[in-house]
Protein: DUF2268 domain-containing protein
Organism: Neolewinella antarctica
Amino acid sequence: MKLILHGSCVCLFMLVGSCRQPTSAVPIYTQDINHYWEAYDKIIATDDSLAKREYLQTLFLDRATPGLDKLREVRNYTAEEYLANIEAYPKFWASIRENTLRAPELADRIEAGVRDLKRLYPCPKPASIYFGVGAFRTGGTAVDSFVLIGSESTLADSNVVTTEFPKDVRPAREAYFATNPIDNAYTLFVHEFVHTQQEPIPDNLPGRCLYEGVAEFVSCTATGAEPYASVLFGQAHADSVWSVFETEMFSETNTSKWLWSNAPNVFGQRDLGYYVGYAISQRHYERAADKKVAVRELIEMDYTDSDAVDAIIDGSGFLSEPIAQLRANYTADRPIVTSLVRDKNTFTVQFSEPMDIRYRNFNYGPGGESTSIWIDSVVGFQEDKLTFTFITEDLPPGVLREVYLGPGFRDVSGISLQPYLIQVE
C-alpha cells in the first residue's frame, strides 16, 4: 500500500485484487481543523461580538470541506453554538489543541485499519474520512460515503480539561476522555467505514442495534481492538441485559435507553444496544463455515427488511421466543384508544389501560403539516388515567384535518400506545 500526502489531504491507495468495486483510495481531509484554529485565535483576541461572528464565518465555515458541511447538517451545528462553546470552555480548547493538530499523523493507523478490514471484507465501496470540529454531539458518524469525525471528542485524551463543562454532562465526558479516545481513533474510523457499506439505518430498535453492533463487531474483529465499554458491560451481564431488552425492544420511546444517549436505564450503562447487536453478529460469525461470507451477509443485509433482520436475530438464539412472536405479544398488550368524543373543538379520548400521565405525543397525519389539526391547549388526564382531553384550533367545516395520537402516549408500565388517527371534516 502506498501512502501519498497532498497538503492536508492524505490518500491511502489500496490494491484489491479481483474485487468488482475496488476501493482505489481512502482520502483523509484534515484542513477543517486548521481553519478552526485560525478562526479560534482571532475570536478569542477580540471583545467585538460582530467580529467574532465574522471570523468564524470567513475563516472556518465559509472554507468548510464537504465533510464539515455534512457534519453540521446531520448534527445541526450552528454558528451560535460554536461561538458559545469557544467562550465557555477556554481551558478545554487549550488542552486539546495539540491533539487535534495530530490528525494527519493518524494516517498510518487508518491505513492499518483499512488493511485489516479488507482481510474480512475484501471489496468495500469507496469512502472518505473528514476530521471536522463540532459541538460535542458526535465522536464519529457516517453519511453516504463520508466518514465524519468530531475531533473535539475523538482526538481527546485523559489530559484534557473538563472542569468547565456543565455538571449534567461532565461525568460522561470525563469518563469518555479517560479512555484516551485518540488512541483508538483508527478503530472508530473502521467502525464508521463499515457504516458507509451498510444499507440505510432502520427506524426500529432491534434493527438499529444490529446495525450498530455489526459495525462494532466487524471493526473489532478486523483490528483486534477491544469493543466499546457498553459491549464489555453487556458481556458481563448478558442474561439480565437480554431479559430487559425483550421487554423494551419494540417500544418507539426506548431508543434513547439503548443507543446514542445518556438517558437513564436500569443498568446505568449507556449504549447497551451496541452489545445486543455485537452479540448477535458474533454468534452469526462463529456459526458460519465461511467467515468472509458471514461478514458480507452482516454488512450488506437490508436493515429495513424486517424479515431479514428477524432471521439474523432468531439465529443467534438469545431471545426466549422467535422475535415475530414477541412482537405479536407486544402488539396485543399495547394500549389502544377505545373511544373518541368530540364537542366542537374539544376532544375527549378514552384509553384501554391506565396511562402514564407524564407523557403525551401528537404527530402529523398522512397529509403532513398542511392537513394537521393544531392543538390549542391540553386539559390533560382525569384521575382515572383513562380519560384524556385536549382542545384544538377552530376546525373549518368541510376541510379534512387530521392528527395522530402517537406512541409517546404510554401506559403505566411503559408500553406505547398503538397510534390512533383522528380525522375530521
